[in-house]
Amino acid sequence: MNLLTYQGVDLGYGRQVVLRDVNLSVERGDFLGLVGPNGSGKSTLVKSMLGLVRPMRGEIHWEGGVPKRGYVPQREQVDPIWPMRVRDLLEMTIHSLQTLQPLHRKQCPEVREIMELIEIDHLADKTLATLSGGEMQRVLLARALVVEPEVVVLDEPTSAMDLVASERFLSLINRMHEQKQTTVILVTHDLPSLVNRAHRLGIIQNGALHSGKTEEILTSENLSRIYEEPLTVRSVDGRTVILHGASSGERSAS
Amino acid sequence: MSTLLEMYSYDFMRNALGVGVLGGGLLAFLGIFVHLRRIVFLGAALPQVVATGIAFAVLFSVSPLLGALGGGIAGLVLLSLPGKRSHLPPEGWIGLAFAAGSSVAIVLVALSPAPDGAVLRFFTGDILGTTRADAFWALAAAFLVGLVFLMFWSKIVITGFDPVMSATLGIRVHLWNAVVFLSLGVGLAVVMNTAGGMLAFAMLVGPPAAALFLFRSFPAIIVTSILLGVLAAFAGLTFSFLYDLPGGPTMAAAALVPIALAWPIRSLLGKKEVRPD
């Protein structure tokens, strides 16, 4: 059963439409990858999923009501000047959902559990300002998970990471997804990083979203049509790779 | 010691100390959030708008404290209206509020039938003219703001740190922003009503800046900032009495001393934070 459905949705700001006629479905426990170039409307789509942008037309429907959502922003969007230790941030995130602040500091078992899952227990007493980019991104993932969300939305979490850190972080997402069965929506501009991870893909190009199951979307014909240039999808050692150029011609790996 | 006891045997000095210590401590606490939310310019413009409220109150023979509160709240509402998609950046609106607030207040003062000295005290401050009622209002404001922050600490911090995630979790970000801004308006109104805009702004930025410079945990920063605010009020008032200096500006200068000392102290303690990348 679909957890989230977009039906004929137009998204934008004021009178300016950024994405037209978005149709999308996400099942419970899915891993949806959203891809698109800078300025294509990925963040607008994410904001609509977070309830921060309302549709100009069409309907966004959450089956069973809007679920608890965790959000992992790009790390540049959070300000490390705030004088908090990692443990404080996670505990305060839990306390912020309670009506009143507990007067006595309580140990939150979910904080320890999440820090172990995300492998940041050694960072618990470090302040945010002392974290590296990769560490900060893992802390932000832990913060999103500590409220036990049904859906985790990650907005270009690897945008400022090197290849190794990026791969490590995405593997962590995979492990988290498998262990907690949380629905994951991951936004990136890097299609190859998603092809062997996401169950579903949404590719934004020229103001339109092309979405479907990964195997349906990832065909040479589809990608060549969406990106308006010849692309070839191949399986190499059991992994899907995308190559530039037509299948019979010269090409280079991407 | 006997000079100190004699100095504070006068009612006007005790009242001034009460307002200075309570108001200074309150603004030193709220200033932490002014720095962390990166709204220091707002902290500079707001006293000017509060001054306009006071000038209005004097012109229409209403309580200056009510005028200060009204000015503070109106200023915060007006400054929070322009959204991210406004044609002017937030700093532009804040600059306009600063210019409008300071000029309109002076025009209103010129129109006021009250003696010039009585009105001007609200701008330059006359901490020695404070009454027991002023000290009571400062105590009430400090208690109220302290209670609100204690009860809703995590919501206030988390919404300031990451409004998007907070909104996603269903926390009413606008409400908690309003709570912070309203607290700021109340704190500024209470201090400006007696001590003027200069002292209010100095307390808002000086002690918290030093505390943020020295420490990286909320408890240490809060305790240090409030202590520095209280100490600056006490030291400034004492110095002003001993050396016959104007009270408000001396306290304001004292509030800025800690940041001048914080750098060498931090270097001596060898506190350095290095981000790995």
Provide a short characterization of the protein structure:
The complex is a heterodimer of chains A (254) and B (277). Chain A has 254 residues and is of the alpha/beta class. Chain A folds into 2 domains: 2-218, Rossmann fold, CATH 3.40.50; 219-254, no CATH class.
Mean pLDDT of chain A: 85
Stretches with pLDDT under 50, minimum 5 residues of chain A: 249-254
What is the number of beta strands of chain B?
0
Radius of gyration of chain A: 19 Å
**Helix-strand string of chain A:** EEEHEEHHHEHEEEHHEE
CATH topology call of chain B: ABC transporter involved in vitamin B12 uptake, BtuC
Shape of chain A: globular
> With helices defined by DSSP (H or I, 4 residues minimum), what is the helix count of chain B?
12
CATH architecture of chain B: Orthogonal Bundle
Cα end-to-end separation of chain A: 35 Å
The most extensive contact between chains is: A-B, 42 and 35 residues
Specify the CATH class of the largest domain in chain A.
Answer: Alpha Beta
Characterize the overall form of chain B.
globular
Q: How many β strands of chain A by DSSP?
A: 11
Weakly predicted, low-confidence segments of chain B = none
Number of helices of chain A: 7
Strand fraction of chain A equals 25-35%
Would you kindly provide a written description of the structure presented here, covering whatever features stand out?
The complex is a heterodimer of chains A (254) and B (277). With 254 residues, chain A is α/β, with parallel strands linked by helices. Chain A has 7 helices and 11 strands. Mean pLDDT of chain A is 85; it is low at 249-254. Chain B is an all-alpha fold and 277 residues long. Chain B is built from 12 helices and no strands. Chain B starts with a helix and ends in an 8-residue tail after the last helix. Chain A binds chain B through residues 13-14, 50-52, 68-71, 73, 77-85, 88-89, 91-93, 95-98, 100-101, 127, 129-135, 143-144, 147, 153, and chain B through 35-36, 38, 85, 150-155, 157-162, 164-171, 212, 215-218, 221, 273-277.
